[in-house]
Design goal:
This is Wd-repeat protein. The protein is mainly beta. It has two helices and 34 strands. The strands form nine sheets. It has a four-stranded antiparallel sheet, with no helix packed on it. Strands 4-5-6-7 form a four-stranded antiparallel sheet, with no helix packed on it. Helix 1 packs across helix 2.
């Protein structure tokens, strides 16, 4: 049993004017919290919260408080199977509401799906090669970003299906793309051409070129303030780039093989890297010369993820296991999730953090108690490797994507 009040949910103010960045606020530490007092405390430190929006803020806090009292969902049933593409899937992504999802494919398209009905709403055509990366601009979700093996990225309107802009500059396949969470007009892409680039989505102009890696760049992730970019590369390093100076802040060295991922915790003061050298490492942003801790597996570490509070780290490995580590204190192993019969390629925590979801080449996804390591449910039914899985924003729905060319929605 997980006490949700041990966690720190965040209020994210969504401005209709996209020029205003999202604001994250820590709140609701206990049941007896006086929401009027809390609203005033928030306003005293956040100038965007004025007297005019007090009622809206209090209403949001009430909804969050009610949400925290609800029990954590632990059992899911198969709600819908989406027969997505004729050719293999590459990626899948929920929108914030969980009512829409997008898929990328070797058929050179991205498709927008209605999760409730299972209907295909739009086919985004225009790429001339595999669509490998797909992303929404959270939290608004009124734009879609695709990255392709045709060396371009494209910005789309998900309602009309129209391409708004094509982003040119890479000289090899694009394998990752995401929106800046603070400045949604900016997007980052990474490529097999050994570079990461930042573009202005409305003008198509290249804003930053980060070209110091000596091998393929396989992930690029902004911090929550959008002023730093974290890249991971097959050159065995990760790099933190400063968006303001257009130069790299520091190169993270310490792995002995290609990296498979690099991620921020929510506070963005810690970085986790995973590698084919059978380790994952934790790095403190203030001193990146040496890792703060090292997690080990018996085979390649294929994925790594923090929980929402940054207190736990999950690793997934080709040794068929996932592990959860306590990031606070002395960095201790919490539990081992053993049960998959093939490599674990994806790990992700539920939004409250009490559950861990894993995807495996054994054609299943599994849900685990992240504290005990007990498998609470096996999501079976795919006829091929499950390579992607994620919770929706609320944590009450799951999407799994498989090499059988289907996505399954679980509720």
């Amino acid at each position: 049993m997980i006490d949700l009040f041990d966690l720190t949910p965040r209020l994210v103010e969504e401005r209709s004017n996209s020029n205003h960045p999202a604001v994250a606020i820590t709140l609701l530490s206990n049941y007896s919290c006086d929401l009027q007092v809390l609203t005033k405390q928030i306003a005293s430190t956040e100038p965007l919260i004025t007297q005019e929006v007090f009622p809206q803020v209090t209403e949001i806090l009430e909804k969050l408080q009610k949400k925290l009292k609800e029990p954590v969902k632990t059992k899911f049933y198969l709600f819908k199977t989406l027969q997505t593409h004729i050719l293999p899937l590459t990626n899948v992504c929920f929108d914030k509401s969980g009512k829409k999802c997008i898929t990328g494919s070797y058929d050179r398209t991205c498709r927008v799906w209605n999760v409730e009905s299972g209907d295909e709403e739009k086919v985004l055509k225009g790429h001339e090669n595999v669509v490998f990366s797909v992303a929404y601009n959270y939290p608004r979700c009124d734009r879609i970003l695709t990255g392709s093996f045709d060396k371009t990225a494209k910005i789309w309107n998900p309602v009309s299906g129209n391409c708004i802009n094509t982003l040119w500059g890479h000289t090899a396949e694009i394998v990752g793309a995401e929106f800046n969470p603070s400045q949604c007009e900016l997007v980052a892409t990474c490529s097999m051409d050994n570079t990461a680039r930042v573009f202005h989505s409305e003008t198509g102009q290249e804003v930053n070129l980060f070209a110091d890696h000596s091998a393929e760049v396989i992930s690029a992730r902004f911090n929550k303030d959008g002023n730093l970019l974290l890249t991971a590369s097959f050159d065995e390093t990760a790099t933190v780039w400063d968006m303001r100076s257009k130069e790299h802040a520091v190169v993270i060295r310490g792995h002995d093989a290609e990296l498979s991922n690099a991620v921020w915790n929510f506070q963005c003061n810690l970085i986790a890297t995973s590698s084919l050298d059978r380790t994952a490492k934790i790095w403190d942003l203030r001193r990146l010369e040496d890792p703060q801790a090292t997690a080990t597996h018996k085979d390649e570490v294929l994925d790594v993820a923090f929980n929402c509070t940054g207190t736990r780290l999950a690793t997934g490995s080709a040794d068929c296991t996932a592990k959860v580590w306590d990031v606070t204190g002395n960095f201790e192993l919490v539990t081992i999730m053993a049960g998959h019969t093939d490599e674990v390629s994806k790990v992700t925590f539920s939004p409250p953090g009490g559950l861990l979801l894993t995807a495996s080449a054994d054609k299943t996804a599994r849900i685990w108690n992240s504290g005990t390591g007990i498998c609470t449910q096996t999501l079976a039914g795919h006829d091929g490797e499950v390579f992607s899985c994620s919770f929706n924003y609320s944590g009450d729905a799951i999407i799994t994507a498989s090499k059988d060319n289907t996505c399954k929605i679980w509720r």
